[in-house]
Amino acid sequence: MAAPVLGLILAGGLGRRMGGVDKTLLPLGGRPILARIAERLRPQCPAGLALSANGDPARFAEAFDGPVLPDSVPDLPGPLAGILAGLEYGAASGVTHVLSVPGDAPFLPENLVARLIASLGPAPVAVAASGGREHYTAALWSVALRDDLRAWLAAGERRVGAFIARHGAGVVNWPTEPVDPFLNLNAPEDFARAEGIVSNCSPPSASG
Fold it and tell me: Is residue 11 a contact partner of residue 22, using CB atoms and an 8 Å limit?
């Protein structure tokens, strides 16, 4: 790959099931989820990390020291807008690919970037999967997609899976035992489960 990968943490969700809070700032084992995700990604992303989020970026300052990227398109159209902001930022920074991950997945694999890069082939996207399910926001994206993605959003399209299908993607599977590395913390019961994982043992590297 011509240039190091930029890591992009997607934190633009409204967190409705958690009372409308920034889920990525909630504590898990005494540390913000965001700090845990950044710790997992930093060794894999030599070009650094960025955070996709709207609103006052100062609220993330204690947990994250990288750039905070607001949507570059109006009307909060969802994760694809955050990915577009990351692709535009990455292109301006001289990287060729951006790794996106959800901001509520604290157990991401330590070999996420390496395995996604290996699966790219001719496709401009590589997607992580586990438990028979593709995780569209845990993916590696070529920055060359940014113009088509902006046009896609301008046309009113919002579905991440549909945009990926438009271009094709390599898919990489990870095991879900002992822990699904793409476990999303969407609701209080998910946090309770994750607290148990953190307190009982160190999360696995999920090397696959």
Answer: yes
